[in-house]
Design brief:
Strand content: under 5%
Strand order of the largest sheet: 1-2
Distance between the termini: 60 Å
Shape: flat
Radius of gyration: 30 Å
Number of domains: 3
Number of strands: 2
Length: 481
Amino acid sequence: MDMTHLERERQKLSVDMQNERNVNNKEKVHILSTYYTDNEQLVYSSLASFIESKKYSFEGYVMSTFAIKVNPSYYSAWMYRRKCLRKLNLNLLNELRFTKCVICDNIKSFQSWFHRRWLVEYICKLARGGTLRGEQAESANRGKRVGSCSLGAAHSSGENSSGGPQIAWDSYDLEDEGNFISSDGSDGSDGSGSSSISGSRGSRARRASPGLPAEERPLEEDAFLSNCEEADFDAEKADVAILHEDLQNLVESCEFFKNALRPNGEPVNIDEFLYEEMLYSNCDIFLDAKNYNSWAHKTWLIDKLGIFKNKYLCEQYNIISHEFNFINYFLKHDIYNNSVWVYRYFILTKLKYTRKLRKMEREIKFCLNYAKQFPHNEAIFKYLFRVIFLYTHLYKKKKKNVADIFEIPLLLNLKEELAKLTDQSKYVLIFLSELYSFNGQRAQEVQCYRHLQKNDNFNDAVWRYRIEEAQMKQPCDAKSM
């Protein structure tokens, strides 16, 4: 390496450091410019102005609809929309239909699934018996509502004609994620019977600043990120006038926006509502059996809304048997679908079958049958090992505290059956090595790894490391014995 080369590198480093200083001195760096059509830019800039000014009006709700149709992953648009729903008391069931349309076009959009989850839980909480407040407080709240345009006025007239009590919006904390998506599963009650969704929540979760109104809390200042500059809000007055006129005509001619103005007074049978939501999640899984959001929504319904504790659903629709039939159908359709095995394990734990010895024994036999038919299926062996782990601890606790797990007849038979398949699949060898490791049999574990090292050339370094690791543990085990 000569001095000329070193000097060239020094100059290059100097230029890079100068560029870094220039970048640090700038407030904003435009890394990538995104092209928008004139209509898209108008929609985004208009919605951003509503977001920045915290103006929750029906006009802003309409603009968020268009913004979400253009970009279903626009998080701030969804969050603003939730605030409009609550502040303006817009129709929640109509909003469910909107999320169905968005999800149908963009099934992997997390924001739309989260919004639907929020809606389902919110409807359930309102229907399950909040307290209604008096007319005087409602009149005061109606005067505080944001939105003075003609669209907002149309909504106000719709509210006045409802004739029923309204939701006490001012008594709610507007931090949606913290308060309206359960984290402890405390709402998993039966919730049988019919109710109306025109009530309010009886209790609130936590408040960031109890002494301040929701709109004035410091936490709310950074709730939205519009990523817009001041210049982006300077739309032409003529364009804004045309936009307002077009929105007015659109609302008058669109059934969806008309339905959004309907009061939340229609009766809802919460049990049938939850069952329909389960069927909806099933339909989405049929569309894409490996979509994470569909399975997550289904598990959330069961876990947080007490589907299996609901006496009406269990008796009327035999919901537990239905779920096992649902799982078995997808296993027969695609045995390699790991999402189905994960969901099956969730159902087992939710029903507390992991605490019942006979149930676990049946599950091991069920998995062994599939493992013998599909020895190349890694998902089966991952699931089976976890089931065996739980079964072993349960067996030691309830029957006999054995030192060697192969003293249990079922596990001995399983080992002998799978040992016949070691030449067919590496996943059988990996499973047996994990089983031997769990049982403390280091020599047999090393033997499995040697077979893998010999036949699995792509991962030979991994198996060599596993052999060394097992051999290091072997003398320690001998000393402890």
